């Protein structure tokens, strides 16, 4: 694990101890983002899926959108392009409905990248990478 992922875990623990659920979830997101940046696909996907599940039913829309988009990226790293595409589309829909313009542009760009990868895989009929 990278230093940034380790720091995010420490921050999550501190937020949890202080009773800040929102802070702990945001710190967990930062850890997932760090794993994504290091292309640690499998661990990233596992932690992102857990985070997305923990956010479900909570009123943290910004974090939910970001987490769905991040989980999609992690899934694309591992070659799970179909699920990645579905999750990134969900993130785009939520962002569009939310009115958060900057996050909408971010997740839209991420979805375009994932869907481009998906189109390439469909065209060539084979996985180009596996993590």
Strand content: under 5%
Percent of residues in helices comes to over 70%
Order of helices and strands: HHHHHH
CATH class: Mainly Alpha
- From the N-terminal CA to the C-terminal CA, the straight-line distance is 15 Å
Summarize the entry for a quick read.
This protein is an all-alpha fold and 131 residues long.
Characterise this structure.
The structure is a single chain. The protein is mostly helical and 131 residues long. The chain has a single domain (3-124), classed as Tetratricopeptide repeat domain (Serine Threonine Protein Phosphatase 5, Tetratricopeptide repeat), CATH 1.25.40. The protein is built from 6 helices and no strands. It has helices spanning 3-18, 21-37, 41-55, 61-77, 81-98, 101-124. Helix 2 packs parallel to helix 4.
